[in-house]
Amino acid sequence: MPAVSFQAISKTFATPKGPFAALNQIHLDIQEGEFFGLLGPNGAGKTTLISILAGLARASSGRVLVQGSDVQTDFANARRKLGVVPQELVFDPFFNVRESLRIQSGYFGVKNNDAWIDELLENLGLADKAHANMRQLSGGMKRRVLVAQALVHKPPIIVLDEPTAGVDVELRQTLWHFVARLNKEGHTVLLTTHYLEEAEALCGRIAMLKAGRIVALNRTSDLLQAASGSMLQFKTDTALPPALAMVARVTGRIVQLPANDAAEIESHLAGLRVAGVDVHDMEIRRPDLEDVFLQVMSGTSASNIPLDNIASAAAPGRPKQGVVLSGGSEDTPVPSVGAPL
Ligand SMILES: Nc1ncnc2c1ncn2[C@@H]1O[C@H](COP(=O)(O)OP(=O)(O)O)[C@@H](O)[C@H]1O
Ligand SMILES: [Mg+2]
Q: Do 304 and 208 reside in the same domain of the chain?
């Protein structure tokens, strides 16, 4: 039985401009023990799908099962199996951190939970904030409490909706270390993130959502394998000639030029030489998940999976377990997925 089964989920919002289809026929099974990534640009429908899973929104059609429990007809059982960290920071300002976790435990009928609450506080770097009032906490600390709240009843399935958006490197490391441990211990994880480096390092399988439809669904390693060509990457302080500027991805001083083959790499290099561009730290590398993502979103990728093939493509590989992002130093780069999204 899948941990989560989305079956033909559609969601249409009534808007002043008429009906808007935010989700269109989503079929997706997430198996027990997977670390699953749901990626997509802003507005793709990720939060809507998670809201339907969490019972916070109703699908217009289709159904969602959580370990076999229907989120509509068997809400209490479905909800108990889920720990959901919402995208928005919502909190009760009147309680301190420990109180809010005790209240959340009570909500799920879990008694005498202080040992686990202590472990959560410790693992999420909140131990010295246990008596701090929620409204005194910084945004990053509030985010940690939200994660603790979601995990307070030890749910078998952990759902994180952009948990690291706008948070510092330290929290990201702390969070991923802990979530990876929980996944290793058997918890299923469903993650949405804009940080494709995180998804590449953590997720065994990935679905990409675009305008409410799944446009790619595969094991992370297979998505990377299927990506075509290579990337010519270098640093420069010089402006690129127009022909290269059109195809380049530029992040500060870093320039990335997709190339289909050796001839195209040669032609890029010639273009740079003729234009007198100073090139530093040049490398040629395989496409990473960000490149795959951009290929899929622009419709140029071989990883695109027609909708009628999704079911057969959905067979999961062994979940990648216990993966922790390397590094942990202050200067871990934040992946750039800025402009193209
Ligand atoms: N309550 C709502 N009413 C109308 N449109 C909505 C509502 N909630 C979300 N949408 C729209 O649905 C689309 C998907 O939103 P969302 O699920 O938040 O995307 P994501 O989380 O992938 O950024 C967006 O175009 C958004 O504007
Ligand atoms: Mg969202």
A: yes
